[in-house]
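Subject: for your reference before the review

Hello V.,

The reviewers asked for a structural picture of the protein, and I figured it would be easier to keep everything in one thread rather than splitting it across files. Below is the amino acid sequence we used in the manuscript, unchanged from the supplementary table.
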Amino acid sequence: METIIQILARELEQTEQHVENVVALLDEGNTIPFIARYRKELHGSMDDTALRTLEERLQYLRNLEKRREEVKGAIESQGKLTEELSAAIDNAATLAEVEDLYRPYKQKRRTRATAAREKGLEPLAALLYAQKPDCPDPLEAAAGYVDPEKGVETAEDALQGAGDIIAEDISDDAAVRKALRAFMQRRSELTASAAKEEDSVYRLYYDFRQSVNRLQGHQVLAINRGEREEFLKVGVETNRDEALILLRRAVVRPGTRATEFIKAAAEDAYDRLLYPSLERDIRSALTDEASEGAIHNFALNLRPLLMQPPVKGHVTMGLDPGYRMGCKVAVVDGTGKVLDTTVVYPTHGERKKAECIQILAGLIRRHGVTHIAIGNGTASRETEQMTVELLRQVGGGVSYMIVSEAGASVYSASKLASEEFPEYDVNLRSAVSIARRLQDPLAELVKIDPKAIGVGQYQHDMPAKRLDEALGGVVEDCVNSVGVDVNTASPSLLQRVSGLNAATAKNVVKYREENGAFTSRKQILKVPKLGPKAFEQCAGFLRVPESGTALDNTAVHPESYRAAERLLELTGHTLAEVSAGKLGDLDGQIRAAGAENLAEQCGVGVPTLLDVAKELQKPGRDPRDELPPPLLRTDVLEIKDLQPGMVLTGTVRNVIDFGVFVDIGVHQDGLVHISQISKGKFLKHPSEAVAVGDIVKVKVLEVDEKKKRISLSMKQAV
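And here is what came back from the structure prediction:
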């Protein structure tokens, strides 16, 4: 039997040694970001995604192993564990297979078979099910089990009871269940029909049928929700005759006097026990697969959203649009500090709109605003139109961007927001959040539950724990890949750093407030309750720009400082040159001297040496700065302005199973169907071609003003 290490190595196409090293590192309490970045030699440079896959699969396999032992222990306590059964349990590749093997021995609620066994009919069932050549006639055999005192009045009663026992035994047979489950997965259809005569968002599924193995995840989740809300009746349809043929081949021995009786029992087992149970299994498997797919897509969309390039160092105005309560305004400086706030009413008539433009123009001139971030919620379009008029009036130098305000209201009403901005009301806090989302999306979005950020589908239908784990992992990876300034970061950002948690993050901020800015990485060790292990995990991801050594403002881990200094020495450079950005062609020097040779002299592996060199050349670098900048606008389009054939530039806002939604500067995002994304290339999923935040060219195919639907094409815009 394969070990867990061997299984992981085979599935992930990694060496057993690398897998074993990762498992050991995880068991020692190391975090994924730390392992991915600083232990490359031990795992062959797997990325954080591969490492998280390994971690998840490791947990599953360990749970499987634990369950195998529990099941074997339970069967053994009944005195029924044979060598063959023990081997079958050990070889079971999934939890479902283990449970199938355990099924005959599991304590059940009272069933028809239970009642028949209590009447002493088990020997009769065993005699008939054996189907030996000398098997007696079932009715004759049953006559010997008539016992009115036990409730068996006639031979027919005895046969009925024996048939119930056989039906349950057939239903509990692991091999039978496995074969039928595989058959149903191949040959079944999921069907949906209207549960009531009422129009709804589920009308697409009022007369729906699709092969189980061809269903899309979004279809499964939509149908499940429609069923829960009682708009749909849902079932799994299978060719009963074909299923019964398969079942009879497995349990019926032709040519005996009991053959017809066993056929009838098998049919009863299928209709009453097997089919309903396997239908539930199939729907559960479909839901699990769809949920995993949705979680994967959510995580896939979340990463580029968090990693959107920041618009740093600019005074920014945040506008949180609204009708009745007005448009909330916040001006923040280049570091996110609030400079001014107000409320204006651009939708309350032309006079109020003119007044609004005058007030905002004054704020722009007073504070030197260069960018405006507009939330994309209620009254966003009207606010955008007002903003364009405002920009014309101030005479250039200012641009705007529509920013997703998903989760802003959740944040503004949170305990965190009230601690951060106790002097502002809920509405003004959301305007601050919108402004900061343009300046540094990552730093702001980490304050919000990832489920509320608005880049997934059916997130409320997902297993909450699994979704939180997946999205939390993405946030953690993003924060650590960028790095965090220990002297400016909020507790929300700090707690996402490898090795830190909510308590230690607060302690870092408290220490900073009481003692002033950190002046070295070593000083972080003085933070209460932040021990050596936590420091090891977090140090490389925390930047200290105020430090006297340039290395403290890089992703070089303190454990590699001596290696970095040695590399500089061997290539004729100094730390002062690192700070000044004057290392010349360090990469060329490393190639000339030989990376392996230098790595050996520095006492590190080649991957670490190359990472160190990269950091020395760009101290304090932000990987997001290397990405294309966000699309800022100075003019506005309305849906009525759109004409088929127009080619526009837009920003990808969401990637889902059947296409992508693109912001083209109209209040309503347009849809690029998966068939319209790539020319000459088949895509299994849109994420193979685009990601959230991508700037893309699109061609308008169709505009439906009434339904507010815009159909776009990327492949026709090329």
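For the response letter, the relevant points are probably these. The CA atoms of residues 564 and 612 lie 6 Å apart. The two ends are 54 Å apart (CA to CA).

Happy to draft the paragraph if you're swamped.

O.
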